[in-house]
Amino acid sequence: MALPCHATSSPDSLQIYIDKYDYVGARNFANRFCEKAWRNKEYLSYTKCLIAHAEMYVLVNDPEASHKLLFEGLRKVEQANLLVPQVMIRNRIGAIFAKSESYRASMKYMRSAWQLSLQTHNDSLISRCEQSIFYSYLMMHVRDSSKYFSDRIYKYAKKTKDNSEFHRAHTNICAYYFEFEEYDIGKKYLDSSVYYANRTANPQIIEDASMNAAAFYVKPFKNYAAAKKIYDKYFQDHASDTTSSAMANFYHTYSEILEKTGHPDEAITYLNKAIAIKEKAYAADRDRLVWNIESKYKIKKIEDGFAKKNKIMLIILAVLILTLILFYFYMQNTRLKQKNKLQLLQNETQQQILGATLDGQETERHKIAGVLHDNISAMLSSASLQLSAFSAGNPDKSAGVSKVREIIGMAHETVRELSHELVPVLLSKFGLAYAVNDLSERNSTDTLSIKAQMAQEAQKRFDAEFEMKVFFITSELINNVVKHSKATEAFVKIGADEGQLSVVISDNGNGFSSDTSSDGFGLTQIKARVAAMKGKINIDSKPGAGTSIHISLPIPLAPLS
After folding, report:
1. Smallest Cα–Cα separation from 28: which of 38, 20, 17?
2. What is the number of H-type helices and E-type strands within the chain?
3. Angle, to 10 degrees, between the axis of helix 183-200 and the axis of helix 203-218?
4. How far apart, in whole angstroms, are the C-alpha atoms of residue 428 and residue 414?
5. What is the rounded (10 degree) CA torsion for 232, 234, 238, 243?
6. Nearest-CA neighbor of 203 among 238, 241, 177?
7. What is the distance in angstroms between the CA of the first residue and the CA of the last residue of the chain?
8. What cofactors are annotated for this protein (predicted)?
9. Using H for helix, E for strand and C for coil, what is the string for 178-234?
10. Do 196 and 170 form a contact (C-beta atoms < 8 A)?
C-alpha cells in the first residue's frame, strides 16, 4: 500500500521535550501528533513519532511501556496493511530486545521485519534491516549467519556505489573477523573502511572511522604509536570539548596509550581528566532523575488553589534531592582525589580505584532507592490525602481534584518502579539464596541449564550490603557463562563455613586460557570487587575443558537472623 507524504509538523519536535527531561510534555505531544498523523493518513510520520515515543520510555528505564506502545502501533498498521511501517516497528521492537540481550526475541522480530522489507523492493530499507540482524548475530557469536548478512550488505554497497555504504560494509566485515579473532584479515577491512570513509568527504564519518581504527590499534594490535597519532589529531580538532562522556572514554584509552609509549606522567594527567569528567556525568544522571520526577508534577500548576502549594512542594523536593546528591558526590570526589595521589598506573592501585567505584555504585543504589521509597512516596501519599480532604470540602471542584489525584498516582507508581530497579526486590526481601536461585532459573534456556545449590548455612540472611555485593558478583559470572561459554550445563554452589562464604560457578563450555595476562573488563571488575571485600578468587579454565571459578569471602560479623 503506498504511503502519503510526511506530516506538515515534524515528529522530531518530540526531541525538544525529551532534551528538557519533560517526559509528561513529550508523552502528551506524541499522543496528539500520532493521533493527528493517523487521522490524516500520514502513516510514515505516525510511525516515526511512535518509535521516538517508545524510545523515550527506554530512556526512563521502562521497557514494558515501550513494548506496549510499539505492539499497539504494530497492530494498527497491520490492520491497515501498511508494509513499510510494519517493517520499521518490527525492527525497532527487535532492537529494544537486543539492548536487554534478549537475542532470541530480538531475532524473531528483526527477521520478520527483514522478510517484510523484501516485499517493499526498497533496497535502503532492506539493507537497514540486514544491518540490525548482522549486529545481533555477531553479538550472539553465530558465525555463518553473521557472514551471510555482512555479504548481503556489501552487495548493496556495490549496487549503490556509494562510498558511505562501502565504508559501512567494510566496517561490518572488519568487526566480523575481529569478533572471531582473525585479526590479519580484519585489519585489511579496517584499513579499507577508513579509505572509503575518507572518500565520502563527510567529516563525521571520517572521524568515526579514524577513532574506530585507533581503538583496534590499541587492542588487539597494540600499535600504540599509530593509535597515539590518531588521538593527537582528534584532541587537536576538538580542543574545545573537555566535558563530554565520549571524551572521557577517549582520555581513559589515551592514558593507557601514553603509559605504553613511555609517558607515565602524562598518562596520570589524562586518567585524572577522565575521572573528573565521569564524576560530572554521574551528577548529570542524577539531575536527569530529579527533572524526571519534577516533570510529573508540573501539570499540577494548571489546577486551581493548589498551584502555590504544589510549587513549594516541588522546590523543597528538588532541593532535598539535589542536596543529597551533591553531598554524595562531594564525598566521592574527596575519596577519588585522595586515591589519585597514589601510583594510579600500578595494577594494585587500579583495582582499588575500581573497587571503590563499584562500592560507590552500590551505595548510590541504596541511597537513591531509599530517598525514592521513604521520602518521595511518603510526600505523594500525603499530597493524595490532602486532595481527598479538599475534595470533600469542595465538591464543585472534584473534577480537577480527580485529575490531580490521577497524576499523583502515576508519579507514585513511577517512583516505586525506579526504587525496585535500583535494589532487587527478591534480594532485599528474601535474601541471597532465594535471589541466586531465581537468577539461575531466569538465565536458563533450552540449550543451557543453570542449577543452583545452596548449603544449609548459606540460606540464612547476612548483612544487606554483603548480600548485595555477593549477588552482583554471582550475576556477572552467570552473565559471562551465558554470553561467552557456549556451555550446556552450569552449576552455582554457595556454602558458608567457619566465617567464610564460598561461591563456586562451573560450566562445561569452551573455556579459556587462565594463564593470560589480559582479563576482560567484566572479570577485572569481579577481581576488584573480591579484593575490596578482602576475599580470594581462583580461576581454573582451559580451552575446551570448561571453567570453574572459586571465590571465598569473609562473612561480616553478626549476620541477621
Report:
1. 17
2. 22, 5
3. 160
4. 19
5. -90
6. 238
7. 66
8. [4Fe-4S] cluster
9. HHCCCHHHHHHHHHHHHHHHHHHCCHHHHHHHHHHHHHHHHCCCCCHHHHHHHHHHH
10. yes
Other Cβ atoms less than 10 A from the Cβ of 382: the count is 11
**489525584: which residue's cell?**
405
C-alpha cell at 112: 520478520
d(CA 185, CA 194): 15
CA distance 483 to 142: 12
Cβ neighbours of 1 (radius 10 Å): 10
Give how far Cα 160 sits from Cα of 88, 155, 204, 230, 338, Å: 22, 9, 21, 30, 56
Backbone angles phi, psi at 162, to 5 degrees: -100, 130
Angle (CA) 57-242-344 rounded to 5° is 100
Q: Sheet containing 547-554: which strands, arranged edge to edge?
A: 449-454, 489-497, 500-507, 547-554, 536-541
C-beta atoms surrounding 164 within 10 Å = 16
The pTM of the full predicted model, rounded to 2 decimals, is: 0.46
Nine-digit cell string for 383: 499530597
Q: Which three cell numbers stand for residue 528?
A: 576488584
C-alpha cell at 164: 558511505
**Mean pLDDT to the nearest integer, 30-43:** 92
| 557 Rama sector, left if φ>0, alpha if ψ -120 to 50, beta otherwise | beta
Given a contact cutoff of 8 angstroms between Cβ atoms, the answer to whether 318 and 491 are in contact is no
Question: Picking from 14-23, 353-362, 372-381, 521-530, which range would have the lowest pLDDT averaged per residue?
Answer: 353-362
* pLDDT given at position 33: 92
Could you please report the per-residue DSSP string of 385-410? HHHHHHHHH-GGGHHHHHHHHHHHHH
d(CA 294, CA 320) in angstroms, rounded, equals 12
Nearest of 427, 383, 442, 411 to residue 60 by alpha carbon: 411
User: How many C-beta atoms surround the C-beta of residue 375 within 10 A?
Assistant: 15
Neighbours of 284 (CB within 10 A): 11
pLDDT digits (tens, 9 = 90+) for 78-99: 999 999 999 999 999 998 888 8
Give the model confidence (pLDDT) of 122-164 as tens digits.
988 999 999 899 988 988 889 999 999 999 998 998 888 889 9
100's grid cell: 536487554
Which is more confident, 104 or 519?
104
How much is the pLDDT for 390? 73
